[in-house]
């Protein structure tokens, strides 16, 4: 007899309560269903599917939260565990066993960093050009900043747009002119040209690749001099991300989620040739002939924000932390205009400092006659003007807030568009119910909405009376609004909705060679094998992009970067690879936990393309006994054979009592008695210790031993790598977290490779 239960629970999400149901039968979890939520749909759907699969597979709520949505998923796990326990359900967990730290190695033609729009298009293009492609994404879901936006984009020059608009006079040159005009000529012309020339072919390509069916966008904004904006049927960017990612995998592409890049991988010529990343505590090494950087912006990183963004609500992903500017440290890459942001006037503050966009709904309101007023009750702008006029007018107010006033007829259509673009019905009702709080959403008579919003009623009444008169006459003496948008208010019920400046997009970033989208250093030299796409490389849209243009840049730059990365991979295929030296790296202690093992593993991965490193453990080697030299223990034989076969040796030693550990000294005695495995071998010494002197005495001691008769090794002079205060030098995933330390280790290792020659 089955024992079916449907257990209800709720957890705190980012935007409100999440209600769910856990289906249990005979003490076994069959399903985790979401009943209600107010989260961002494109992200939430991916995250919950992943969380549910993990819970059902492991029959436990003690599983890992999903990166990029850690707080929300952990809240669900904690509350669900409590709910199941209260019902007396006795689960039998099948938790995956905890393994020691491991490294996964991959080799590919192209690796793409970032699973947003630009990264997916770049990966798709490279795939279709016959390349093997791996895409790494730090979050547990795809989409990046794109997932929070609509799917609207320009289709200029595409067959797709030609079928939608016909011959309407649009052209790449016209799109470039509009871009320059609206950005007040702050755009970088060469990048703009790259964008406008590639967006047409890119739209046709990605439409065919992922079976996308673009149509005319509901909103054609005034900034564009001709109708050219298209969108997907759902109007959601999630449709784009979902279909393109599925097509990417169906065509042989590989996606590694929860994989955060921490450092660039370099080859023997010190050129970028892949990435080193972390995945659930393990390390991931991806060697590639070309790298495409599509990691997005840095809007969520308070430390990187400039003056322009202060006091402006942020509505982008909280994971847009500018990681590239950390893992590219040491490449001396050139940047530009890091203080540029795309500031929109259409946003509501859903929590302190955080906003959601209302662009399409706000445009609908003004098309139907809505007006913008300030706290004094006065109109502040021509409501049919470009968005930049709205932005400047709102930011000019002392409180940087405006209010959108509309009648009930208009609200119904505005409401429909708010729900279509990222707002939930329950969320909107909550705004109306929570009077006196932000965001301001109020309904009632003109006097009531003014009182609730804190707007001067007397002045507001005068403003409405004047507007009604102007609308009836079809003229707007003060702001010169187009007569076709001067619609009088109908009825006695009004809606007042706050409008604040908000930003998600950073418009500056890395500088590139506009012929190839190759990153450049501060001397304006191309960085070999390294390309950029999307928000991380700004400039095409200048200091103020038009609506639909960030998607235009993301898709066009991804398309072009995918081509360039593929061609670069072809060129590298024609260059014969040099033989890498083989190195034996001895962990100089038998301790189960040692920072020297962490150092050895890190060196093996960091220098993966510079040498073939075999990490040798000595924990199974017995203490040296001269009576046994004629009957050499198997553990000694194994280490001796590997050292003799190697081109060079590295020894990582701790420091015990001003000397090397007894276990390491014992191994050296085995290797210098009957056999002389280190004779004439070139050796590098490294070491990590808890103290401030970083194994200095142990290394001195080891040099003396290696120089002794019977050992006769050649120790590299100078270049002594001594890691002090080791616990502070490694992160939780056992990677070196200090750039200075890593850089010096790289220098010492490169010196050793030269010493070997």
Describe this structure in words.
Helices cover 34% and strands 22% of the residues. With 757 residues, it is of the alpha/beta class. It folds into four domains: 4-87, Sufe protein. Chain: A (Alpha-Beta Complex); 104-341 and 505-573, FAD/NAD(P)-binding domain (3-Layer(bba) Sandwich), CATH 3.50.50; 346-500, Alpha-Beta Complex (Flavocytochrome C3, Chain A, domain 1); 582-756, Rossmann fold, CATH 3.40.50.360. The strands form eight sheets. Strands 4, 5, 9, 10, 11, 12, 24, 25 and 26 form a nine-stranded mixed beta sheet that branches. Strands 27, 28, 29, 30, 31 and 32 form a six-stranded parallel beta sheet that branches. The model has no long low-confidence stretch (mean pLDDT 92). This is Urocanate reductase. InterPro entries: FAD-dep_OxRdtase_2_FAD-bd, FAD-oxidoreductase_2, FAD/NAD-bd_sf, Flavoprotein-like_sf, FMN-bd, FMN_Rdtase-like_dom, Succ_DH/fumarate_Rdtase_cat_sf. It catalyses: dihydrourocanate + A = urocanate + AH2.
